[in-house]
């Protein structure tokens, strides 16, 4: 089970539904953009093919969300480590000046 799925499992159903709707809408937008880019239309694909294209795009968007969450957590952890080092250095300098 992915980290994103675990996070979604803990969220209230209304938030899950909103997330899925937003991802679906964004995926449809991206598929439409891709079709225009490749000079295709929706009519060039049957329903199953369109659903597959949208599902793939949803997967990509979910991966992007996971990466964003991970990067945010790493940034927060890095800031916490940096603050710890600053405090350590300040206390070391203070201790050294006292000696």
Structure notes:
This protein has 99 residues and is mostly helical. It has one domain (3-98). It is 86% helix and 0% strand. The chain has three helices and no strands. It has helices spanning 3-10, 13-37, 47-98. It is elongated. 2% of the residues are buried.
List the helices and strands and how they pair.
Layout lengths: L2 H8 L2 H25 L9 H52 L1
Uncertain stretches:
none
How many domain regions? Answer: 1
Mind telling me the C-alpha Rg? 23 Å
Total number of β-strand segments? 0
Q: Spell the H/E element sequence.
A: HHH
Quick structural gist:
The protein is mainly α.
Keywords summarizing the entry:
single chain; elongated; 3 helices; 99 residues
